[in-house]
Task: structure prediction
Amino acid sequence: AQSVTQLDSHVSVSEGTPVLLRCNYSSSYSPSLFWYVQHPNKGLQLLLKYTSAATLVKGINGFEAEFKKSETSFHLTKPSAHMSDAAEYFCVVSHRSNDYKLSFGAGTTVTVRA
Amino acid sequence: NAGVTQTPKFQVLKTGQSMTLQCAQDMNHEYMSWYRQDPGMGLRLIHYSVGAGITDQGEVPNGYNVSRSTTEDFPLRLLSAAPSQTSVYFCASRAVHQETQYFGPGTRLLVL
Result:
């Protein structure tokens, strides 16, 4: 079985300050983990993915995430938020034993204040 | 490449009406799937297909039918729409031995 918990439903930051989105996962096996972003009324865009290589994963638009097996976490960070980062973010887990079916977290909505 | 395309973008139905949501991909991906997105629940898998002629149920299949006659197309049918099916529907595809899924732009459905 696999599942994802996003610990914050909403995060508000000021432009230029760091962003932290927290994600914990549960998986019977070593999982693949993803972060997707969805801007208002848009589809889902892949930010980054972890697939058992380097534990610190760099993605697009300055985002990165660190896989910590001991903590079963995959938190997403960005050093300096931009207004264009306002969106909903989804943490997602999958594994080949489950035919790579995706299990989504409930999502975190990010608001960026000017 | 157009990637994954979905039509229509927005649809309003009355309870009991039927309709088909279209999904097509031009990446020759074997695996295609349908998700619904509801507030506070992320995306949930409705149905999926690992290739032409093969479909299977996901987490929330009730009220939906699918078929896969070609590699490119994977339509989702609502036989008798209900207000509980008001949602945003996303189609996705991936190559069979790859993990990354590519999503379409979504169809927003309102059932009155």
Chain B has a mean pLDDT of 94. Chain B touches chain A through 21 residues (CB under 8 Å).
